[in-house]
Amino acid sequence: MLKPEIDDGQASLADPQFRADVLAGLTRRPRAIPARWFYDHRGSQLFEQITELPEYYPTRTETALLHDLCPELRRLAGPGRAVVEFGSGSSTKTPTLLRCVEPAAYVPIDISGDFLRESAQALSQAFPGLPVLPFEGDFTRPLTLPGQVADLPKLGFFPGSTIGNLIPLAAVDLLRAMRASLGEGAMLLIGMDRIKRPDVLLPAYDDAQGVTAAFNLNLLERINRELDGTIPLDAFRHCAVWNDDRARVEMHLEARRDVSFEVDGRAFDIAEGETIHTENSHKYGERDARILLRSGGWTPVREWTDDKGLFAVILAEA
Ligand code: AVJ
């Protein structure tokens, strides 16, 4: 999940998209900033810590599932495919999958090139003889994959329930783009977090040690650092809520008091109790997950879940 950053403390070198998203997000009502901006260097470190928290079940549950499903996945997806991973391949999940399916090539796709090449190099060292072909691009749109894998059947890999960050409309668009990128005969292995009791869901997003709170508040620190912000951090508190109507955990930053600050030379006033919405994490029941996949052009083939039904890994075909 580590993403590179340009951090020399000069607001003038901040990502223009970050600036645009923050200024627009603080202006609109309700206020909202896209979750992708959590992942500067510090944010990526904090996310790594989140994945190890006792309350944060998704990572360890999915990792265990990937080990358990291996024999069956090998039968269903077979060796000799090109594994195409959407997002960085830095986690321990990627080696687990690559050892299992024995692909003919591995194509990690990410928008941020530096980090992509770094993690690709680590993987090529761990898998000598496996062609690793990092591909820099925006996978939310249909892509033309490297020529070397053109004739290989693909196995897409989208772990972590990252799909949950997207509202259903955007999730369906993404699944369709993946189908277009992967082509005929493709399969997709995707992780989705299940709907469950809020007393299990919410602590995963509001842990006792306060790591998730620090992760959320780091967004404000990043704004201060990269966009010349004067946001007093003590004026905001982390909050996680279950939105039952929309089947998602939402993270917000709530103003503890009336607060005024500047970002990039623009003034903002936020009233006590008002929030900045920073993340959605959509959860999918068994049928919800299948409908979502079918809406995106994928036919579910097999799904695996842990004995508590916390998390699902689903194999689908184009
Ligand atoms: C990386 C999007 C899967 O939604 O569970 C973890 C991010 N946010 N704790 C998730 C996250 C707060 C995570 N995803």
Task: Sum this structure up briefly.
By secondary structure, the chain is of the alpha/beta class. 36% of the residues lie in helices and 24% in strands.
Kindly describe this structure.
The chain has 318 residues and is of the alpha/beta class. Helix content is 36%, strand content 24%. It has ten helices and 13 strands. The strands form three sheets. Strands 4-3-2-5-6-13-12 form a seven-stranded mixed β-sheet, sandwiched between helices. Strand 9 (259-263) and strand 10 (266-270) form a beta hairpin. The two termini are 27 Å apart. It binds N,N,N-trimethyl-histidine (AVJ). Residues 50, 58, 160-162, 164-165, 205, 212, 279, 281 line the site of N,N,N-trimethyl-histidine (AVJ).
